[in-house]
Amino acid sequence: MLKEKHSREKDEKDTAKYIDLVRLERKQAMNILNTFTESANDAVVMLDDNGKITYWNTAAEGIFGYQRDEILGESLHERICQPSLWDKASTSLEQFRQSGQCPMVSKRTELKARHRDGSEIPVELTLRSLDMNSKSMTLGVIRDVSERYRAEAEKQRGFEKFQRSLIQTIR
Question: Taking Cα atoms as reference points, which of 42, 103, 53, 99 lies closest to residue 77?
């Protein structure tokens, strides 16, 4: 009886040590992930299965103008989607919740997002579906492509100017 009690106590201590080790490893992994996402130039956003924001990195603050503490728990669609896309976004979210499938998951999509001040921001969005602790989550990486759009427009203007100049020279 005494041996059984001692064995049970040892098992409980071993289990507690294992749980502590798992918690420590998880905390270290979260610290690494946090360091990575906070150093990223792209917005890193995580949503729960209701489309509510559960993670918002520093780059997201800069791109969209919302501070982390004011946007956590809010609907991503209502905050950064253009109002004309709300229905489509809600339908896609519902489809994703029911089937785990969404046309935008695992694809790079260019669209117009909305800054806090209401201005449009051209962005490139990549979504990934995650299963965390038996909960469906969505990870979004959002890149502000405004500078690329400006460079492309400038390149186009330069090309058009060159064409006009060439035509003038030929005449």
Answer: 53
What is the distance between the alpha carbons of residues 129 and 137, in angstroms, rounded to a whole number?
A: 6
- Cα–Cα nearest to 80, from 122, 139, 41: 122
Q: pTM higher than 0.85 for the full model? A: no
Give CA separation, 37 vs 30, 44, 58, 117, 141, in Å: 10, 6, 8, 25, 10
| Whole-angstrom distance, CA of residue 23 vs CA of residue 28 | 9
CA 142 to chain centre: 6
pLDDT digits (tens, 9 = 90+) for 42-64: 999 998 888 899 999 999 999 99
